[in-house]
């Protein structure tokens, strides 16, 4: 990996601090480097302003002269009542070079941000970065697909069950896996369960980790009826396109909701928490429309596997250009 790629990956890791509080703006990370050392860094603040580049440049001040700016997303080129265009701030900053990891699909910027920086006499280049794209996955889904990125979480036994035959499900996994789930909730704009799960379990769906309670996502229920107080109703999986301002949707249960999203071809990412127990109870999924076993192959790619106490987490992403 080149030095540029390493700094972009570091900026992508920094961008995680912005999510999800930066909504409706993307969570962006920026790092200023001079003589091989970081002189300033920033990420998009709550509510979307100030942007990452503005934060880093404000911290660096005159020290930004001659530095290289690494930023996960192309600097914005449009004016806003809430702040200046980042392309203009960068152009006036005195930096010697700009490296971005992802072009901005927003038509208000879409290449013009990079062009404006170059017009100011600054060397600027686009270095495609998988780390930067991954850090912006929800934003990119909203722009390219017109909907949030959907993560489906399944906590199951070795035999693929999410509950006993009686319906008892607390707890399939152990405390480490449950804490990890809360950390994943903290990265989501919205969290959703099916109507049956809401009625049976009355889940809180909040984030119960120290210091992260304010990152509890909006609560949604998949139902054609009315949502109870404190919840919002989603009539069908396809209706996620109407979830205004939501870039990251976390689907947490139960089997009917999971099956419905898979059947609609709307799951981008799978989090499978597997406990070393056998239950012989209620399966995690129902029939989501596969006509033949051959259709099941080549759809998912493992991106991560880790041990969480006695449980195992496997993270899968949908293979590009492979519908459900």
From TrEMBL:
Transmembrane segments: none annotated. GO terms for molecular function: 5-amino-6-(5-phosphoribosylamino)uracil reductase activity; diaminohydroxyphosphoribosylaminopyrimidine deaminase activity. It holds the Pfam family dCMP_cyt_deam_1. InterPro entries: CMP_dCMP_dom, Cytidine_deaminase-like, DHFR-like_dom_sf, Eubact_RibD, RibDG_C, Riboflavin_Biosynth_HTPR. Residues 2-125 form the CMP/dCMP-type deaminase domain. It comes from the Bacteria. Keywords: Hydrolase, Metal-binding, Multifunctional enzyme, NADP, Oxidoreductase, Riboflavin biosynthesis, Zinc. Its EC number is 3.5.4.26, 1.1.1.193. Its cofactor is Zn(2+). Pathway: Cofactor biosynthesis; riboflavin biosynthesis; 5-amino-6-(D-ribitylamino)uracil from GTP: step 3/4; Cofactor biosynthesis; riboflavin biosynthesis; 5-amino-6-(D-ribitylamino)uracil from GTP: step 2/4. PROSITE patterns: CYT_DCMP_DEAMINASES_2. Binds 1 zinc ion. The keyword Zinc applies. The keyword Repeat does not apply. It catalyses: 2,5-diamino-6-hydroxy-4-(5-phosphoribosylamino)-pyrimidine + H2O + H(+) = 5-amino-6-(5-phospho-D-ribosylamino)uracil + NH4(+); 5-amino-6-(5-phospho-D-ribitylamino)uracil + NADP(+) = 5-amino-6-(5-phospho-D-ribosylamino)uracil + NADPH + H(+). In the N-terminal section; belongs to the cytidine and deoxycytidylate deaminase family. In the C-terminal section; belongs to the HTP reductase family. Converts 2,5-diamino-6-(ribosylamino)-4(3h)-pyrimidinone 5'-phosphate into 5-amino-6-(ribosylamino)-2,4(1h,3h)-pyrimidinedione 5'-phosphate. This is Riboflavin biosynthesis protein RibD.
